[in-house]
Amino acid sequence: MTLRHLSLGSLAAACSILVLALACGGKNSSAPTTNLAGAWIGTVSTGESDLLLVMPSGGDYRHVSSSMFIASSGNLQISGRNLTGTATIFPRAGFPAPEVAGTLSGTASSASINAVFNPTDPTKGKTTISVVPDTAADSNAQLPGLAGTWLSQSNRNSSREDLTLTIDSVGAISATSNSGALAGTLAQPTDNANAFTVVLNVTPTDGSSPKKFTGAAYLREKATQLIINADDGKGFVAGIYTRQ
Predict the structure, then answer these.
(1) What is the model's pTM?
(2) Which domain holds residue 95?
(3) What pLDDT sits at residue 14?
(4) Does 138 reside within a domain?
(5) Same-domain pairing of 57 and 153
(6) Is 184 strand, coil or helix?
(7) Which of 46, 151, 187, 193 is the most buried (most CB within 10 A)?
């Protein structure tokens, strides 16, 4: 099964393929607690990547697969090398599948995060995945540096259409797509940190109610690539954008 076949009946199997970028742990350690803040990356058997961002404070994280078929968000806490946390897995916005909540357990260090996702509903199945620091992620960033035009091709975003975003020097976002108009904001809660918060307001062209997505964004490849990932509590919107 691939994530493209995710459905109400197959969500349990999909949970066993991938959803967070985290995997099975080792023994407890009395080593000093590691700061997990930053970007992480992992590769799964299908060849796609798991892209994970841990925010600079508090342990909140966002994850999305590079195929843009599934994403998750939650919170990570570490004591020594012991990792615990919460997670919710989301399908793409508008996809007929429910979100899946659960907990995380495992180990972590500055070199890797290793954990297992334990769904609250045991029929969904556990999953184990692994990530290491993303060396392609920028080490620091400033909000004005995001200003410009960004393009995401249809196979690199959850909307499955070519998207162009315009971002101004204070983080205002605007875009128009076949499915609706988008307006939003980016903010930088920690100076110089390559971790931005994002709010996206989508007004669908089909006349349905506007939707608000909140999430995070970060830069890769020397500020030429922007990862955006947000959810509304039911589904996610995300994309890999290239600077034009």
Answers:
(1) 0.85
(2) 3-133
(3) 39
(4) no
(5) no
(6) strand
(7) 193
